Amino acid sequence: MDIQPHARMNAIGLMSGTSLDGVDAALVRTDGACVFAHGPSLTVPYPPGLRTRLRALLDEAPHLTAQSAQVLEIEREVTDIHAQAVRLIRAAAPDMVADVVGFHGQTILHAPGPAARPEGGRDGAHACESAREQSPATPCAARQDEPPMGQHGRTWQIGDAARLSASTGLPVVHDFRSADVQAGGQGAPLAPLYHAALLQGRPGPVAVLNIGGVANLTLLGATGHVWACDTGPGNALLDDWTQRHTGQPYDRDGALAARGTVHGPSLAALMAHPFFAAPPPKSLDRLSFHAGLEQIARLDAADGAATLAAFTAEAVARTPLPEQPGAWYVCGGGRHNPAIMAALAQRLAGPVRPVEDLGWKGDALEAECFGFLAVRSLRGLPLSLPATTGVPTPLRGGQLTCAGITPWGMREGGRIL
Fold first, then answer.
1. How far apart are CA 301 and CA 356, in angstroms?
2. How far is 371 from 202, CA to CA, in rounded Å?
3. What pairs with residue 122 in β-bridges?
4. Contact 40, 93 (CB under 8 A)
5. Whole-prediction pTM
6. Is the separation of the CB atoms in 81 and 346 below 8 Å?
7. Parallel, antiparallel, or unpaired for β 153-158 and 22-30?
8. In the chain, % of residues over pLDDT 70
9. What's the sign of the alpha-carbon dihedral 140, 144, 149, 153?
10. Residues 150, 410: Cα–Cα separation, whole Å
11. What's 166-214 look like in SS3?
12. Separation CA 393–CA 383 (nearest Å)
């Protein structure tokens, strides 16, 4: 593909996060540096049975390969739900013709090594600089047969990009994280450059806090530099606790946590996890804190939920930051939990608000991000920075498959030539 510099493209971003609740899809118009328009967004939930099997797959993933029967079966189902999301988005925006799909896939294992520390490197990169810095062209591949594994660790997102491309007739950018991990980075978070693009022109320091299964933050500094890391648990522990005690997949409206009282000794024990002693940048797997459920096993359902909501907030509050944000804007499912939002407001300096206060769509933000990153990947722009993932230098990422594209289809499409 020959992508014109600064070409504006309509990208469908797809995200299925560690909360395992379904596929978020969103359409954005972008050149990979700026965002010019936001199209429709939607969520296609995972069926309960698939969600249960995905949750079991997380426990089994360290012992499996990409060719394991249970992986292939679930991967096919997950991919087809992503294809359904693409079809629905295209039907909802017939006048905003999609050029490319950004396909994150479903993370089933994330175990990077310690972040590489660049010698004499800068602490961050300016938002405008990082959005435009060039890198070599993106390689092309259909899919990876095995999860990336090497001296720096491993990250594994399932999803058949060739099948998705064939089903949708669109080019698909995928495998966003493995290049960063293999270069010594953490492979996460990847949303900071998208947050920085949306925050252009807004004075810093300001923080965007994403609370999904894992929580992570982006800090845009007073001079426009971008800094990020995972902070600790998001919703995953509370979801698993709620499922265990009530049979419900999550604590709807924070009702269970609201009935409980935070147990101080248990919270202190949870905060003793070695992750919190490690310097940023750093990242987590959904199950990194799962043993913590046994540490609160003697609490009743409500007190356990209240303690886990407080754990999410306490981990954010204790994250060492190069600058203190003047305001915190929260996205991800956690912002729908009043117990988590109240705990954040109590522990953080500065106002804590949902990202809707910025005019953003909080439930679509991560999906939009991977549409944006798909265009960056096509343009050979970096997806990660030393101050966001610990990678030694700004690094491109992503693989491209055009398995569903015919030569005449490319000509008729008009934009990608």
1. 31
2. 22
3. none
4. yes
5. 0.89
6. no
7. unpaired
8. 87
9. positive
10. 36
11. HHHCCCEEECCCHHHHHCCCCCCCCCHHHHHHHCCCCCCCEEEEEECCE
12. 11
